[in-house]
């Protein structure tokens, strides 16, 4: 019994992979359980199509749940097929892409279905850091199934999809009309595991683009394409747009291409991938401004680190380090978010981000584009915690605190004119980029227009970096 070629699950696979490249595995598998008349129910492929194909010539393994078969619910054989895909992917060193459209556990199979969930979780954990894992939610993804995209490295969600641990109406004091906690909008902005929302075609196109820039496994090469761009190309308007790192990263990348991750979550911290001379580089950047497609300022942030932003950065850096993808940080930070809400989780999040940067042995470059003030700067991949190179633009400001505040603390009884003079003196002596460079904390001061060529050179040099690590099992954060 073969899977229907016109099923929605198969159509999604066909859109994803190169033409005629998909080979289905396990097409004859059906449900094994016979309780509650399940034996009388037609269950082709037990509700999930699995196999392998090519994306731009790169091998990928795919599973796609078929909601037309028992609502795509997960039973014993359904789970075993997904687990088998993971086993093959790890043997072959290729990414796993999962299309989720499922009503949850199959009630007729009870403990077998529960065990199946556990098998899928275990395979995701085993594959983490070995091969990239990508999930896309096209229908329903509820209860324990929501753990699957959360365990993935990247997760996408169709605009009309639903993702939840508890349904909106099951949350005390809430109704779906009041706050739809299962919506794509809520999950992408508040949850922290959804990278982008869109139509089915948009999501599949983004997944194809993502696969083309990622190494296939943790031993794969980060040179993923041929560079057709000028390596010495001048980058225009960089200083004027330093508040929005999306523009800066697009400007320095080959072909002006920047693939952003977690676009709608913690917008004060930007993460994503660029390419420099064909090499994939992970980027982490502070964001104080967001400009729309017309060049108008759409949003503005304080330039302070937040708990969500730090957690977002830490998770991204850990992914890059696991796959030996070089990391570029763009630092433009004034301090920490100062709210009661921020205090609840900021210290732990800062510790997590600091550990991620300091622990990472992949090539690391820090570019200071604006403010680098206080210990917030230190946590942003500074030379002190392990950056291989630290560059700064000519007008960057690096110091313990703002000159005006420092003057008020040191000269509390001084007049306004004297405070202004002392503030200017403090900035010149303690917060200038030249002061930091003379002490070895900055390796090179750049004209913003020259940023691309110097970053290309830095990562080319660091390509063969080999860093020893202390003998320990793992860190604890």
TrEMBL record:
List, in alphabetical order, the Gene Ontology terms for molecular function in this entry.
methylmalonyl-CoA carboxytransferase activity; propionyl-CoA carboxylase activity
Which residue intervals define the domain CoA carboxyltransferase C-terminal in the entry? 233-477
Look at the named UniProt entry and state the broad enzyme category this protein falls under: transferase
Give yes or no: UniProt keyword Magnesium.
Answer: no
Describe the location of the CoA carboxyltransferase N-terminal domain by residue ranges: 1-173
User: Could you say which EC number(s) this protein's record lists?
Assistant: 2.1.3.1
Pfam annotation, one family: Carboxyl_trans
Provide this UniProt record's keywords sorted from A to Z: Transferase
InterPro entries the record matches? AccD/PCCB (IPR051047), AcCoA_carboxyl_beta (IPR034733), ClpP/crotonase-like_dom_sf (IPR029045), COA_CT_C (IPR011763), COA_CT_N (IPR011762)
Lineage: superkingdom: Bacteria
Q: Which GO terms describe its cellular component?
A: acetyl-CoA carboxylase complex
Q: What is this protein called?
A: Carboxyl transferase
Q: Which organism is it from?
A: Roseburia intestinalis
Q: What taxonomic lineage is listed for the species of origin?
A: Bacteria, Bacillati, Bacillota, Clostridia, Lachnospirales
């Amino acid at each position: 019994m073969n899977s229907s070629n016109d099923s929605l699950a198969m159509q999604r696979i066909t859109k994803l992979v190169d033409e005629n490249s998909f080979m289905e595995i396990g097409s004859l598998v059906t449900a094994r359980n016979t309780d509650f008349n399940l034996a009388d129910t037609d269950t082709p492929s037990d509700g999930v199509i699995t196999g392998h194909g090519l994306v731009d010539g790169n091998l990928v393994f795919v599973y796609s749940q078929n909601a037309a078969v028992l609502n795509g619910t997960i039973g014993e054989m359904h789970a075993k097929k997904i687990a088998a895909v993971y086993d093959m992917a790890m043997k072959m060193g290729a990414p796993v892409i999962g299309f989720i459209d499922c009503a949850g556990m199959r009630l007729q199979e009870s403990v077998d279905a529960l065990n199946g969930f556990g098998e899928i979780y275990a395979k995701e954990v085993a594959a983490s850091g070995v091969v990239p894992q990508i999930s896309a939610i096209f229908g329903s993804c509820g209860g324990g199934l929501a753990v699957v995209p959360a365990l993935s490295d990247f997760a996408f969600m169709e605009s009309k999809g639903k993702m939840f641990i508890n349904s909106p109406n099951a949350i005390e004091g809430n109704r779906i009309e009041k706050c739809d906690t299962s919506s794509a909008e809520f999950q992408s902005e508040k949850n922290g595991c959804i990278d982008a929302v869109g139509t089915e075609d948009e999501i599949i196109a983004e997944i194809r683009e993502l696969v083309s820039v990622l190494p296939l496994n943790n031993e794969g090469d980060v040179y993923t394409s041929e560079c057709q761009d000028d390596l010495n190309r001048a980058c225009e308007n960089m200083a004027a747009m330093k508040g929005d790192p999306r523009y800066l990263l697009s400007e320095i990348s080959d072909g002006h291409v920047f693939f952003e991750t977690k676009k709608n979550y913690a917008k004060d911290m930007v993460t994503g991938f660029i390419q420099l001379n064909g090499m994939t580089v992970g980027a982490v950047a502070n964001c104080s401004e967001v400009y729309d497609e017309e060049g108008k300022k759409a949003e503005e942030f304080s330039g302070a680190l937040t708990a969500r932003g730090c957690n977002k950065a830490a998770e991204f850096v850990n992914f890059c380090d696991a796959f030996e993808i070089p990391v570029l940080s763009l630092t433009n930070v004034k301090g920490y978010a100062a709210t009661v809400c921020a205090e609840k989780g900021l210290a732990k999040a800062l510790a997590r981000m600091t550990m991620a940067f300091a622990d990472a042995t992949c090539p690391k470059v820090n570019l200071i584009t604006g403010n680098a003030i206080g210990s917030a700067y230190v946590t942003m991949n500074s030379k002190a915690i392990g950056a291989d190179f630290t560059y700064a633009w000519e007008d960057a400001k690096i110091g313990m605190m703002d000159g005006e505040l420092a003057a008020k603390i040191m000269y509390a009884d001084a007049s306004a004119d004297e405070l202004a003079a002392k503030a200017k003196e403090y900035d010149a002596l303690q917060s200038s980029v030249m002061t930091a460079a003379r002490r070895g904390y900055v390796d090179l001061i750049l004209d913003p227009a020259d940023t691309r060529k110097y970053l290309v050179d830095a990562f080319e040099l660091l390509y063969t970096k080999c860093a020893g690590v202390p003998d320990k099992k793992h860190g604890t954060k």
